[in-house]
Each structure stands twice: as structure tokens, then as C-alpha cells.
């Protein structure tokens, strides 16, 4: 049975649609069904005298149906001024009566019945936009010679620090740990001569945080580039890439999203502190970040050594590192990495890391180009683009310390 | 320092390259370094009388270097008839003497030092091709209205059967299980009205298999489509999509890969058995599959119920399912799924599955369109395209029961 997308229905032609019954209204002389597919919704009309009337009256909201009939212009119909006068209705799958949630249901229960919540067009749009975002990211990477990476999520030791890592028994090898980030492996790709890599994939954090910005599993977006001169090269790449991504969202969707024209402002960590002290806000905390950043983008650069991991490259007590803030929220952490084996070994030792990162230190033993990169959580970016209250709404199925279902 | 890709070096101009020292030859009057980047390799020449000679003599193979100088045509040089006469050499990272592997090292030790093995152009090409393959897959999906999915890898129960699943303690919720496939969640997306989805992401199998075709973690390629009439719709989609993908590999790389013109042949499971019996081979085992398939593609369809999972749609004791074979190896399993709640519940019960899949059965309670899809391991496809001996060489970092490193 051929199928017409609902937005492609044309008056005075026959149409065969397929979708969910969003609502049903049974009147004295007629039954109205609003049927939705991914493109839109349409009113299906069945006269009570029509042989299909009994079936239409009996349909439950939520049911998956195919409907064929004549498309008729009807100015009285709110949905685009057309209705589909049904000649055939097939109930492919009948919904149980009484859907367990509607738009007014509390957030946690919305997550319990996520697949029903996702049927609402505003929720599905989040994932249409996410699809555009990832497509635009990869377009830009492809044009700039990046190789796609799928780094392992099962590791023989914790990827950066052992404190917030999931672990499990693994055959005769003791335990395996779930990767907190692809950090070490994308750097390995630099030692392997891949020069430029990207990965979009899951990462796992066993932290008990329950904030609107945290999850125990999320989709991480990561790049790494060789032969850079400093972290400035990475920031320049990121701002051009993000402009391309936000431009694609603006072009392909009916969404207000700012696309900055030029470079993003940069502020060193020290200068940021000074600015905040000048306005009587002594801390570079989230509220301070919001003060500095406003509604736009801001690179905060050159963090002190003690705030950054051992593998960031150091210079005069600072690191060649940056955070990118947008709308007051940190969306990216990036840096030039230390690629010199002797320096890196010393920094690892000072951080109290020894045996657990020895396999990582080996990556730098046989030559490695200077390199750097960045990583961030996809859901944070989507949350900010779509003005969502939390990353839960920007994630297909949220995972937190108290949620493993559905 | 601006950088020229090695393949872009032009005689009688200055060039500044960056890469690894592949080999060094110290002669009486001259030092030759072969330097490689992602695009190619070039001979760097330093006269022993040049101020850089001492540094050049001292360089270790594997070191990451920048070299600037004059590009000179020299018909005596095997690598493209040019050499770079160095005016400046910077050792960005010096390799320790004696690389632990070379091309003759045994396979397991190659995996131990994977980042060094990956420096060989033939190995890196595997991932250049993989990048093209995934890009072409997503191009085709984008043109056909697919939404990108990132389904959770942490689950509260085993995704299909409990026997081969990794599990770990998870806060106060008991245990979490690692997803064996995104199967249940891509079907959830159908119940959510996403209509067409794809996912490329990791899956985890705790099976102790050690064959050249198995891994405990691999990258799975999955799609699911709504409003199909049968598994034939899925097969038609897959063969067109694969033609696009193989065509992209042929167009973008210098690789012999067959791109079939029309539909792939189809053979039912029963007919396949009959054909094999006729040639005296009673079993549909790997050798039998090879006999049927030859060097091309073959859809084997309509498997008996007892060979398929409970969620495949059934018809007359058979399932609406298929495998796709290529070069005698199974690369895909696909099917139309059972979307009718009552039928699915019955089939789950018959399979002895109850409480553990109840959340999955709920997806079908409130209406779900007819749908189907397929899934397969990316590395198998890459292995076949590149004629590699095993999926280990087609995987960035292989994971097996006896390998969690590097």
C-alpha cells in the first residue's frame, strides 16, 4: 500500500496515509480522527452512516492506522483547511485504552513512558535537529580530512581517574572498565599518524550527580588534531566548525538560533577572575561564568595547572587549555596535549598516576606529533540550541544513578 | 609554521613538511631520511657538511619531525623523483631507539603495539575506507529521511538473552547490563513515531568466542523502518544502500570493489537446503553458505521459527527474516518484527521470556506501526571490502576474551 506523507496531501486527489491516531471525537453524525505522521497531522472524517463508522468509533487514541480516501478542501477544518474523507481504514496496531501520560504529566513519569512522550512533535523535533547537527559536524570534518574513530569502551584500567568509573568482571583478565572518554585513544590515533580524527560515541560516568546537566551515560563529541602550534589552533577550528553547525540548523529547521559572524571572544582565566573581582563576584563559578559570557560564546583560556589533568601542555604555571561557554554554560573542554614522553611521564608521576596509565604513556615513546583537541556532551549543545530545561529532554533515553529504564 | 602535505610538494619551491621518520640512511657524504605524512612519503637529504648533519645523523626512526627546505627534482630518487634538501629540521618528539615491531612481527604483538602498526599506509587505509563507508551510509540515510539514534548501552536487563551479557553493579539499582544490540530501542523509536532511524555504535558480547569473526566489543550498524509491508521492503532498501556505499568506496579510493548493478539474488532457507542436498552438502553451515553464495551477494530468506528470536514476525511456521551473505560470509541479519502486542506477548512467553522483557513488550501496548530493519558489524564489511584476514585488522583496537589492551 503506497503511502503519502501528510504534508503532501493535495485537495481533490486520493491519499493513503499512515500514522498514529492523536485524538478521536465522536459526534452525532460524524467521527473525527486526527492522524499524525512525522510530517504533520490531518483530520480524518467518517460519517456515522459510512460502513467504516463502527470501526472509527471503536478506534483508541494512540493506535497505528493506515487511512485511504479523498482529500477534500474544507475551510472549517483548522488543520490546513483539508480533511481526508476515509474510504478505508486499517488498524495496524490497536492501542490499549487510556494512555498513561499526556502533556501535563510530571517529568519523571514522562521518562517512564518516553516513547509516548517522544510522539509529540516538539519532542521529536529535538532529534530531527540533533540529526542535522551531527550531519553538519561530520560534513565539516569530511571537508577537512578527518578520519572517523570508534575507540573501545571496554578498557583494562580507568581512562583518566579511577574514582567515577563503572567496572565489571572480564573473563580471566580481572576487570574491565567503561571508558569515561575517548581521550587516550584519540591521542593514540595521533601517535599512529591519523593526524585528524573525530568520534561521536557513548561515554560513561559513575558519578552520583543528579543535576540537570549530568548523566551516567551520554554521547560525547570528540576531535583531535596533529601538528598544531597551540590551543589557539583548536579554538579557531572549533569556532568555524560550530558556525557551520549552527548555520545548518538555522537553514534546515524553523528555529531561532544565533550564528556568530566572526571569532568568539577569548578571555584568560586570570583576566576573567580580575573582571569578576571588579564587579564584586570573587568566584569563577557557574554564576560568574554567566556574568562573563552573557548570551553569547566565550572561550576561557589558560587555566592554572591545578585545575587541569596531567596531560594538558603546561607553560609558565598555566595550561594551554580552554573551556567554551555558551549562554553561561560550559559546553567544551579543550587543550593542547603534552606530546613529549619525558615531560608527560613526569607530569603523570606528579599527579600520582603510575602503572594504571603506563600503556598510555607508551603511546608517546616512539614519536608523536604535537596535537590537541576538544570534547563535549552532545546533549548539552542540543539543550542550548532548543532551549530545553535539562539534558534529559535532549537525550533519547536518559541514564542517571536512579534511572536505567526503559 | 605552515605545512605542506607531502604529495603537494613541487620541485623548485620551498616546502615545509611534518611527519614521522620512516627510515634513516647515513652514508659517507649524505644522510637520507624518509619522512611520511598521511598523504605520502618523501626523501629528505642532508649533506654531511651541512650544519644540520649532526642532528640528522642522530635522529631515530619513528621520531615526529618538521622539515623545511628546497624541493629539488632528482631522477635518481625512487619516491616520485624529488627530494627535500633540508634547511631546518625540528624534532617535535624523539622516538626511543629500536621500534618494538616491524612488518614481520607476529599478529598478536602487532596488536600490542597497534599504534605503530597503524602507521603503515596499508593499515591506515583501512580506516580511511571505513570513514568513506560510514559517510556514504549516512548520506543515503539523510537523503531518505532517517533520524540518527544514540540508544543507551546501559540497560536494566539483558537486551535479548542473558547468557552472553556483561553486567556491573549500578548504584542502588542492582546491576546494569551492557547492550548486545540496539534492537529493542530502535524498535522503541518506531513506537515513538520516528518512522526511520539509524545508529552506528558499540555493542558488547560476553561470548568466549575466539574466531577471526568475533569480538567482545564491536561497532554495530543498525536501521529500522516503519510502515513496511514485509521483509522484502528491508532487503530492497539494503541492496540499494549497499550499492551506494560500495560505489562511494570505488569512487573515492583506489580499491577494486564490486558494485552489483541490480537486485541481489534471493533464496529461501528451504530452497537453499534443497540446493545443497542436490550437490551432496546436507548442512547450511559456513561451507554451505559459501557454496550457495560464491563471491557475490545473496539474501537467504524465510528462516524457520526455531532459528530466529521471538520478535521476528512469523508466517506459516517461517519468519519474515533474512540474512545477507557476501563472499560466503554472513554480514547482515534482518527481519520484519512482530508489532502486534498480543502476538508478541505470546511469542515471548513461548520463548520462556517473561519479566525481563516486559518493558520491551510495553512499547507495543499503545500502538506501533509495522516495521523491520537490519543490523550488522561494521568490521565484517570492512574486512570483506579490504580482503583482510580477520576483523582484528578492520578494528581500531580489538577486544576479545584475552585482550583488553592497549
Instruction: Work out the oligomeric state of the chains in this entry.
Output: homodimer
Characterize the main sheet of chain A: 8 strands, mixed
Strand order of the largest sheet of chain A: 6-10-11-18-17-16-13-12
Structural class determined from secondary elements of chain A: alpha+beta
Instruction: Report the mean per-residue pLDDT of chain A as an integer.
Output: 95
Molecular structure report:
The structure is a homodimer of 406-residue chains. With 406 residues, chain A is α+β, with helices and mostly antiparallel strands. Chain A has helices at 53-58, 107-112, 114-117, 121-143, 183-191, 231-252, 269-278, 286-293, 341-350, 358-362, 378-385; strands at residues 14-26, 30-36, 41-47, 64-73, 82-93, 147-148, 154-155, 167-169, 175-178, 196-204, 217-226, 266-268, 297-301, 314-315, 318-319, 321-326, 329-336, 371-377. In chain A, the strands form 4 sheets. Chain A has an 8-stranded mixed β-sheet with strand order 6-10-11-18-17-16-13-12, with helices on both faces. A 5-stranded mixed beta barrel of chain A has the order 1-2-3-5-4. In chain A, a hairpin with a 2-residue loop joins β14 and β15 (318-319). In chain A, α4 (121-143) crosses α6. The model of chain A has no long low-confidence stretch (mean pLDDT 95). Chains A and B meet through β1, α3, α4, β6 and β7 of A and β1, α3, α4, β6 and β7 of B.
What are the main properties of this structure?
homodimer, 406 residues, alpha+beta, eight-stranded mixed β-sheet, five-stranded mixed beta barrel, 11 helices, 27% helix, elongated
Amino acid at each position: 500500500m503506497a503511502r503519502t506523507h501528510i504534508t503532501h496531501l493535495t485537495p481533490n486527489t486520493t491519499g493513503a496515509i499512515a500514522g498514529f491516531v492523536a485524538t478521536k471525537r465522536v459526534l452525532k453524525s460524524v467521527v473525527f480522527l486526527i492522524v499524525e505522521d512525522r510530517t504533520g497531522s490531518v483530520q480524518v472524517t467518517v460519517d456515522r452512516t459510512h460502513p467504516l463508522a463502527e470501526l472509527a468509533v471503536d478506534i483508541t487514541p494512540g493506535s497505528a492506522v493506515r487511512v485511504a480516501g479523498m482529500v477534500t478542501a474544507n475551510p472549517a477544518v483548522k488543520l490546513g483547511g483539508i480533511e481526508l474523507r476515509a474510504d478505508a481504514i486499517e488498524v495496524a496496531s490497536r492501542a490499549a485504552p487510556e494512555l498513561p501520560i499526556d502533556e501535563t504529566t510530571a517529568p519523571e513519569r514522562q521518562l517512564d513512558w518516553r516513547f509516548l512522550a517522544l510522539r509529540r512533535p516538539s519532542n521529536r523535533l529535538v532529534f530531527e535537529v540533533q540529526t542535522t547537527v551531527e550531519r553538519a559536524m561530520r560534513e565539516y570534518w569530511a571537508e577537512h580530512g578527518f578520519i572517523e574513530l570508534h575507540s573501545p569502551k571496554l578498557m583494562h584500567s580507568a581512562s583518566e581517574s579511577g574514582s567515577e568509573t563503572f567496572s565489571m568482571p572480564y573473563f580471566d583478565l580481572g576487570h574491565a572498565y567503561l571508558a569515561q572518554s575517548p581521550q587516550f585513544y584519540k591521542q593514540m590515533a595521533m601517535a599512529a599518524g591519523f593526524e585528524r580524527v573525530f568520534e561521536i560515541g557513548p561515554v560513561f560516568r559513575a558519578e552520583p550527580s543528579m543535576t540537570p546537566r549530568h548523566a551516567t551515560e551520554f554521547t560525547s563529541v570528540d576531535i583531535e588534531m596533529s601538528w598544531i602550534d597551540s590551543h589557539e589552533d583548536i579554538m579557531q577550528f572549533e569556532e568555524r566548525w560550530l558556525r557551520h553547525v549552527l548555520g545548518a540548523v538555522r537553514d534546515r529547521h524553523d528555529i531561532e538560533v544565533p550564528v556568530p559572524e566572526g571569532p568568539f571572544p577569548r578571555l584568560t582565566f586570570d583576566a576573567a577572575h580580575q573582571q569578576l573581582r571588579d564587579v564584586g563576584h570573587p568566584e569563577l563559578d557557574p554564576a560568574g561564568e554567566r556574568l562573563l559570557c552573557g548570551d553569547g560564546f566565550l572561550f576561557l583560556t589558560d587555566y592554572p595547572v591545578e585545575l587541569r589533568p596531567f596531560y594538558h601542555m603546561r607553560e609558565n604555571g598555566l595550561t594551554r587549555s580552554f573551556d567554551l561557554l555558551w549562554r553561561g554554560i560550559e559546553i567544551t573542554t579543550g587543550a593542547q596535549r603534552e606530546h613529549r614522553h619525558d615531560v608527560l611521564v613526569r607530569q603523570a608521576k606528579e599527579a600520582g598516576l603510575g602503572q594504571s596509565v603506563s600503556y598510555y604513556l607508551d603511546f608517546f615513546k616512539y614519536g608523536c606529533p604535537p596535537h590537541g583537541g576538544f570534547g563535549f556532551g552532545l546533549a548539552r549543545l542540543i539543550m542550548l540550541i532548543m532551549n530545553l530545561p535539562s539534558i534529559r529532554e535532549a537525550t533519547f533515553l536518559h541514564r542517571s544513578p536512579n534511572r536505567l529504564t526503559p
